[in-house]
Amino acid sequence: MLSLATLIRPEIPMRFDIARKAVAAGLGLALLVGCGSSGGQEPEGPTELSFWAWAPNIEKVVDRWNAAHPDRKVVMSKQAQGDDLVTKLLTSAKAGSGPDLAQVEFQALPTLVSNDVLADIAAHASSVKGEFPDGVWQQVTLGGDGVYAIPQDSGPMMFYYRTDLFEQYGLTVPKTWDEYARTARTLRTKAPDKFLGTFSSNDPGWFAGLAQQAGGSWWSVDGDTWKVSIDDAATKKVASYWSGLVAEGAVDKTPMYTPEWNKALNDGTQIGWVSAVWAPGVLAGNAQSTVGKWAMAPLPQWDAASPRTGNWGGSTTAVTAGSKKQKAAAEFAIWLNTDPEAVAALVTDSGVYPAATKAQTGSALAKPPAFFPAQTDFYATAQRVASTAAGFTWGPNVNVAYTAYKNAFGAAITGGTDLAPALAEMQRATIDDLRASGFKVG
Amino acid sequence: MRRALGTLPTLVLLLGAAYCLLPVAWVLVAATKSSGELFATSTFSPGTSILANLDDLSSYRDGAFWRWMANSALYAGVGALLSAALSGLTGYALAKFAFRGRDLVFNALIAGVLVPSVVLAIPQYLLISEVGLADTYLSVLVPSVLSPYGIYLARIYAAAAVPEDVVEAARTDGAGEGRILWSIAVPMMAPGLVTVFLFQFVAIWNNFLLPFIMLGDDRKFPVTLGLYTMLNQGNTTPALYTLAIVGSLVSVLPLIALFLTLQRYWRVDLLSGAVKA
Amino acid sequence: MPSTTSRPRRAGAATPYLFVAPAVVLFLLVLAIPIAYTVYLSLFRIEVSGLGLGKGSRKEVFTGLGNYARTLTDAEMGAGALRVLGYGALLVPTMLLLALVFALLLDEDRARARGFSRIAIFLPYAIPGVIATLLWGFLYLPSTSPFVQLLTELSLPEVDLLSPTGIYFALANIAVWGGVGYNMIVLYTALRSIPRDLYEAARIDGCSPVQVALRIKIPLVVPALVLTTLFSVVATLQVFAEPTTLAPLTNSLSRTWSPLMKVYQDAFARGDVHSAAAASVVIAAVMFVLSFGLLRITRSRAFGGER
C-alpha cells in the first residue's frame, strides 16, 4: 500500500521516561515491566516463568505443569515460528527484556549461545543426559561442557507417498535416490501433470537434512577456528542430483509451504513428499481430502547397505541468560521434555516426535497418526529411521547460510541454471560473514 | 452524444471498482470454505463453512482472536484520539502564530517522518527497554500518538478554516489563548480533526512492525500481529490458512464500517485543507 | 486554495511554544534520540574472539566510518537500489495516472455509480499490506489463480507473474491496488475545491468535458499531483512489507531484493546492528535530500497564504 499515510504510519517507538507508572495507571493499562526483575538471588517464594514458544497446543501441556506447580506458574506466549523468534530473542536479550524460557530450534543454538542469549544450565541439567540419544545431546552442548537447552523434538527425514496413486501408475516405493529419479521420470511420462516431489529453494532446513544424510558436514571446529565446508563433496552430490532432476523437469520447482504447494498436495499434483516425521500434522492441515491415502517409508538412500537419514527441524527448550530464575526455568524445561506424562501430552496435543529415547517407544506413540490410520507400524518404522540419523554441527551463523540458500538457490532455479554455483555462493556468503564478524575461519 | 459520454466514464469507474474489490471478493468467498475446500474447490465457488470457521476462530486458544481485536481497538482508538488532539494543538500553533523556530519545528517534524521505520526499529526498541517499557501497551500506544502527517494536515486546516479576524476579535474581548483554541478554533477545525483521526486510526490498526518488535506477550498483540503468528507457525505445522483468512476478513470489517459511516470525512486536500463542503 | 488570509500573530508570548511543546518533546523521544542512537551505533562493529561461543566473546569496537565504506561499496545494496528504481518507474506513473483518471471521472457529473466507485476504489487502503500481499499471492500462484484458469480455458498463453520479470509487475500491482484510492481521494478533494463557475464559463465557450479536464482541471491540480508524486516516490524507495511477504511464495524474490530488506536482514538475520545502522543512515540521507526538495515545493504552494 503506497501512500503518504503508509509512509508515516506510526511505526515509531520511543523513549518514554516521564512518570510512566502514573501514566499507565491513569490509562488503566496493565504494565508488565520486563520479566526477571526480582534481583540477583533466585527467589524462593512463588514465582512466574515466562515462556515463548510456537508448537501447536503446547499451552495445554503447560497447563498440566501449572496445575501441579501453582507456585512455579509458567506463562505461555505464543510466537511466530523459529526464525522470527530467534530475531526477537536476540533483540530482547540486548535490551534485557526477554522471557525466562524459549523454544529454540537446534540450528539456532550456536547463534544464540554466541550472542550470549542462552544460559548454561549444566548445573541443573547434566543428570538428564542419559534420557536422550548421544547425537541429539551433543547438539545442545555444542560439543563442550555447557548445556544450553533440553532437547524437545527431532525431525528425522522420511519419504511420504500417495499409496493410491503409486498403485494407479504402477510405481514402487524408491529405496535409493537412483530409484527415486527413475520413479520421478516414469511418473512424468505416465501422468505429465503430476510430480513425485519438488525442489524447494524456500526451505534451507530441508536441504540441510538431505546434506546430512549424504554425509555433509557444513561447520566444524578445529581448536579456536571455525571450518565451513557447505560445498563439500557430499553436499555437492545432493545439489547436482536435484539440479539434474529439476533441469529435466522430473520434479517440480515450486517452493514448499505456499498456497500452490498445499493445493498440489491436496489435489494429487504432488504424489510424494520428501519430509520428516512430523509430516502427518502438516498433511492433515493442507491436504485434508487425502486422509488415509498416504504412507511413510524410509528416505531413499545413497548407499542402501548403510541406511542414513538427516534431520529437518527439531527444537529444544532453552533457558535465557537474562532470566533471574534459571533454576526454576531449567526444572520446567526438564519436566516438559522428560516427564513421561508431559512428553505423552506433547505427542498427543502438539504432535511432536519427542527427542527423549524412552518416549519414542512409549504408549503415546503406539497408535499411528490419525492421518495415517492404515500404517500401524508408523512409529516403529519412525523409530528405526530416527536411529540412523546423522550427527551434525551447526555454526554460529546458520541464519546467514539459510538466507544465502534462499537467495542463491531461488535465483538458480528461476534462471534455470545449475545448482552447484549456488552452493558455492552459499559457502562464500557464510565464510564472508564469519570473517566480517571477526571469527577465525580455517 | 451526452449519453455516450456518460456511459464511458461510468464503465471506467466500475472497472476500477471491480479491480479494487476483486481480492476483497476473494476473501469473502475463501472465508466460507473449510480448510479441505480451500485448496480443493475452484477459486470463486463459495464453500459452506463460514459459521464453522467463525466458531473455530472464536475458540482458537480460548478466544485469543477477540482479545487481539480488542487490543487493536484500544491501540487504534486511544492512539488516534490522542493523535488528533496533539495534531490539532500543534497544527493550530504552527498556522496561527509566527514564532522563532516555527519553520525549524515544522521541517523537523515532516523530515523525521521520512526515516523508514525498519531503520529505527532496533534503536527504538533498545531505548524503550531501557526505561522498562518494552512489552507493554504503552510501548505501542505512545509512539502512535505522534503523527507528523496529522500535524501537517491540521496546520493546513487551521490556516484555512480559522479566520484570523475571529481570533483577533476574541483576543480583543480578552479571551485567553487556551480558551480561543478550545471554544473557537477546535469547533472550526473539527472536520479536519476527524479526518486526522480516521487516517491515524487506519494507520495504527494496520501497523505491524512496531508491535512486532515491541511486544513479546501474545495477550497484548494487536490483530495484525496475531494473524501473522497464525500464518507463521513453522515447518511442522501448516499455516492456519482458513483461520487466518476468516480472521483477516473480520479484522477489516471495523475499518470498512468506518469508511461507510464517516464517508464525508475521507478527503484530503494536501494544499488547501478541503474546508469547502 | 485558502479563501481566508490568516495573518499569524507576532507573539512574543510563550503561548505558541506551549502549544508545540508536547509534539516537540514526543518528536525528540520518538525520532530524534533513536536517530542519534542509530548514528552512534553505526560507528562501531562487533569483534569476536575465539569460537565466539563463550561468555563475553563478543565486544563492540570503534570502527569510525568503516561500516559506511562497506555499505557504499556493497554490490547487493546497489543492485537492490536499481531494482527498486525499476519497480518505481513502473509503479508511480501507473498509479498516479489511474488516480487522476478516477478522480476526474468522480468529478464528472454525468458518470454514474460515483459514490459506490469512490468507496470501492478507496477500500484497499484499509487492508494491511501484509494481508493484501497474501491475497494477491493467492491470485498470482498459477494453481490457485482464477486468471490463469481463465487464460488456460481460453487457450491463451500463460502469464507467469512470479517470474523474474513478472515479479516487478506483481509487486507494482499490489502497490497500485493499495495506493490508487488514497491518491484518487487527494486529487478528487483538490478538484472539488475548484470553483464550479470556471467550468460553466468553459462550457459556454463550447469546451467538451475532455477539454475542460485537460485545459482547466489538470493544470489546477498540478500542485496536488506534484505532492502525491513526491510522496509516492519516497514510499516506493522504502518498499519492504510487500516483497518480504511475497518472497516465500516464489523463487524469484531474494530476501535482499530492496535496500530496506537488506537492512532488515543485516540487523535481524545476521544480528549485525552496526552495519545495518550505517546502511540506515545512508538510506535516511537519501530520503532527507528528497524530503527537502518536497518541502520547498509544499512550503511555497501550501502556506503562501499564511504569512
TrEMBL record, chain B:
Residues 69-262 form the ABC transmembrane type-1 domain. Keywords: Cell membrane, Membrane, Transmembrane, Transmembrane helix, Transport. GO terms for biological process: transmembrane transport. One of its GO terms (cellular component) is plasma membrane. It is a multi-pass membrane protein. Its main location: membrane. It comes from the Bacteria. It is found in: Cell membrane. CDD domains: TM_PBP2. Belongs to the binding-protein-dependent transport system permease family. This is Carbohydrate ABC transporter permease. It comes from Umezawaea endophytica.
TrEMBL record, chain C:
One of its GO terms (biological process) is transmembrane transport. It is found in: Cell membrane. Keywords: Cell membrane, Membrane, Transmembrane, Transmembrane helix, Transport. It is a multi-pass membrane protein. It holds the Pfam family BPD_transp_1. The chain crosses the membrane at residues 17-40, 84-107, 119-141, 167-191, 220-241, 276-297. Residues 81-294 form the ABC transmembrane type-1 domain. GO terms for cellular component: plasma membrane. Its main location: membrane. The keyword Cell membrane applies. Signal peptide: none annotated. Belongs to the binding-protein-dependent transport system permease family. This is Sugar ABC transporter permease. It comes from Umezawaea endophytica.
